[in-house]
Write a structure and sequence with these properties.
Length: 98
């Protein structure tokens, strides 16, 4: 259960499959175009799956379906690229630094 002011994530359907551009790949055209937005809950209380309104960091108010409470950032930059690990050191040597 989320309460007013909690950091949450909502999902908003932007376009239905029939409203999407005709030049998209078939598998893309078959699904709705959706976005997920993080912000602070405006309603007093809400459960996952309920329709809510949030206020984003930029102050916009957006309505959608509540999908997460205190959502985590799950992205990363992947595994290290061995060729790039020593590039800074090599560049300093080339430029005459340490």
């Amino acid at each position: 259960m989320a309460k007013r002011g909690d950091f949450v994530q909502i999902q908003v359907k932007i376009l239905e499959p029939g409203e999407r551009a005709p030049n998209l790949p078939e598998d893309t055209k078959r699904v709705p175009f959706e976005m997920r937005v993080k912000g602070f809950l405006i309603e007093e209380e809400a459960k996952l799956g309920s329709s809510v309104k949030i206020r984003t960091f930029s102050g916009r108010e957006i309505s959608g379906t509540l999908v997460a409470i205190n959502p985590v950032y799950e992205h990363n930059f992947g595994e290290p690229v061995p060729e790039l690990l020593n590039i800074g050191e090599e560049l300093r040597k080339i430029l005459g630094g340490e």
